[in-house]
Amino acid sequence: MVRLLHPPRSVGTTVPLVSRTLSADWYCDPQVYARERDAVWRSEWLMFAPGAKLSTPGQYVAEEIAGYPVFVVVEPDGTLRGFHNVCPHRAGVIVWPGDGTAGNLVCRYHGWAFGWDGSLKSARDFGDDPGLCPAEQSLVPIHVERWRNLVFVHLGDDPAPLADEIAPFAAECAPFDMESMTYGHRLVRVLRCNWKTYADNYLEGYHVPLIHPSLNRALEMSTYRVDVPHDSYCIHRSDTRDGSPAGGAWLYRYPNLAVNVYADGMNVERIVPIGHDTTHVVYDYFATDLDRIEAMVEMSNVVLDEDQAMCEVVQRNLDAGIYRVGRLSPRHEASVGWFQGRVATAVAGSTTAAT
Ligand code: FES
Ligand SMILES: [Fe+2]
Fold first, then answer.
1. How far is the CA of 306 from the centre of ligand 2 (A)?
2. Domains of the chain, CATH where assigned
């Protein structure tokens, strides 16, 4: 049973006026995470992979999202298919986690073979079992769609089309020629903290002068602000210290997608829970000139080192049982309130629906 130490806040199309944080148990309690697996991670379109990793027949990407191992594969005719990476026989994997190319879909454990639509084609050397109904032994599908040069998945039932769901966020990205950028590199970092601990940190610039000296030197922090123009995303803005405009868009789409896009490159960052206390931060880098990518990765690593150190110590403090609820800065942390409100509303809705 999820304990709501304060009721969920209503979230409108403007920044909600919230002053309190979520309570510490939202970041520590495995039962909260268990509710989020359905209320958040099976209820939203989630960026999954760069389109370049899923462009030719047989290419696949397999990854775990909040305890759901899933994969997306390109059929011989170019169609994208996605499934839970869980065999109906005894829960083996169809493809090993990571990416690669598969000529067919054969379970790695005992060799059951499946069609590209997930239906069972053969149960290798199984023996005579009149009770085995092939129609009941299919892979469990997930929804897959492309948006520009990214592939998204949805793990729930009957989602609205991605194009509808992403439209307000897409409008912010429209000025940028993402398709002219080549995919270049992936960086994965494992953080020992709840996914929201890192997301909260991403969503405010209040901490920049304290823990990011290089960013603080580059940005005019008195102009830094984070706005929530729509219930689905927020946007960071800041002038630079040398007076030049930052020239890009720094966007965060609920629940876990950050896109930092410029005229000549972008990094796409995802915050992916692996458990209630472990989070993968995954960066995918794109650029018109791949020589730029090394510098982009170097910059991310510096900032990520600084954020990781703070998020992991914050998590240990949340776990310590001393902190219960904090207050959010109306000047700097309204976007944190927006994000926490969305999670709380989603979890409360799912709890209500389950009772
Ligand atoms: S678990 Fe897949 S064939 Fe046995
Ligand atoms: Fe930071």
1. 7
2. 25-42+168-354 (3.90.380.10), 46-164 (2.102.10.10)
Q: How far is CA 288 from CA 12, 146, 223, in A?
A: 38, 20, 29
Is any atom of ligand 1 closer than 6 Å to the C-beta of 126? no
Decide: pTM greater than 0.85.
yes
Q: Is any ligand 1 atom within 6 A of the Cβ of residue 292?
A: no
Kindly state if the Cβ of 124 falls inside 6 Å of ligand 1: no
The string of pLDDT tens digits covering residues 115-146 is 999 999 999 999 999 999 999 999 999 999 99
What token pair was written down for 88? 């109906």
Average pLDDT score over the chain: 93
- Ligand (nearest to CA of 224): 2
DSSP 8-state class, residue 313: H
Rounded CA separation 271/334 (Å) = 20
Contacts of 88 (CB under 8 A, 6+ apart): 112, 120, 136, 137, 138, 139
For position 1, what pLDDT does the model report? 37
Does the beta carbon of 96 lie inside 6 Å of ligand 1?
A: no
Going by C-alpha positions, the residue among 199, 327, 348, 182 that lies closest to residue 270 is: 199
Q: Which amino acid, 116?
A: W
